Amino acid sequence: PDVRGLHAYYEELALRYAEHGVDALAIDYFARTAGPGRRGPDFDYAPHVPLTTWETLAADIRAGVAALRAPAWAVGGAPTRVFATGFCMGGRLAFLSGTLGLGLAGLIGFYGWPVGPSRNGTPAPADVASAIESPVLAIWGGADQGIGAPAVEEFEAALRAAGVEHRSITYPAAPHSFFDRTATEHASASAAAWAEVLSFIREHSG
Predict the structure, then answer these.
(1) Which of 77, 82, 161, 191 has the largest CB neighbor count within 10 A?
(2) What is the pTM of this model?
């Protein structure tokens, strides 16, 4: 998920994946501090972000991957390819998932902060690009007021230097969170990004 945690949007996104034959699981990295269970749209997520750590977030990612790979998870048995998808804070985590030795088939990050420090101490993906073991699909908004072109270029350069297979796409008029918060206003960019995601999964699914 993004910085809001397990927002209802991500449950809907899991269903969108399922409609294309992709089993999906959305993790909840605020459950330790906010408690389990559903939270409404007014949930105040800000105090919970700095209470997460890279150690606990990595544990959540590992648990999610293990659950997906369990034989009882999907009709027809465990999947042979697993991908990580994330948005904003989760986009950064999706990139970092490739450093955990999980054998992921691909990393799909939507406007995940690729450089600089974070509120919870997660490493910058550009700084650990040499440890990324999976192909990367990075999606950006060209009108993002936070993640500018220099940050994107720094990440791309780090991936190139590390020899990481990657595709980096910027939609010029799209702002940060265009896919998950303002998809109606940016329908063309959102549709194009979704097509890229599905194509990336097909390409790396054997």
Answers:
(1) 82
(2) 0.95
